[in-house]
Design a protein that fits this description.
Elements (H helix, E strand, L loop, with lengths): L1 H10 L1 H29 L2 E5 L2 E5 L6 H6 L8 E4 L6 E4 L3 H5 L5 E4 L2 H6 L3 E2 L6
Parallel strand pairs: 4-6
Antiparallel strand pairs: 1-2, 3-4, 3-5
Length: 125
């Protein structure tokens, strides 16, 4: 039985290799097409002056970019109860942890620095 199989493979070796190559190319092409379709569905992210602006389908977000406030004019918050005198930008994780009744709001970063506050280490511009 095994000898018949070996003889069959030897006589049809080129046909078997061609069949395996066609199947491999088909599977690879299908998966590449699938990956390409998934990448087109993902939204691109554009960061302008420290503000995340979502861009869908690769088109520019002109409305969002026009409304984007420069980093120098961003409102910053601090806690009344903090002895460390640190401030956070509104998108930083520490800003959401401050209770509303303990929150001090500064119109911009310069005002917070003038009041003696420093930027929190886990908060990036």
């Amino acid at each position: 039985m095994l000898s018949k199989l070996i003889q069959f493979v030897k006589t049809r070796q080129s046909e078997i290799v061609l069949t395996i190559a066609i199947v491999a190319i088909t599977v690879i092409s299908f998966n590449l097409g699938k990956i390409s379709a998934l990448n087109k569905q993902k939204a691109q992210i554009k960061i302008t002056n420290g503000i995340k602006t979502e861009v869908k389908g690769g088109t520019p977000a002109t409305k969002a970019a026009a409304k984007a406030v420069p980093l120098e004019n961003q409102v910053v918050v601090a806690s009344k109860n903090s002895g460390a005198k640190i401030y956070h930008f509104t998108w930083c994780p520490g800003a959401s942890k401050i209770a509303e009744e303990n929150k001090i709001t500064f119109p911009n970063e310069a005002a917070a620095i003038a009041a003696g506050y420093t930027l929190a280490k886990n908060c990036r511009r």
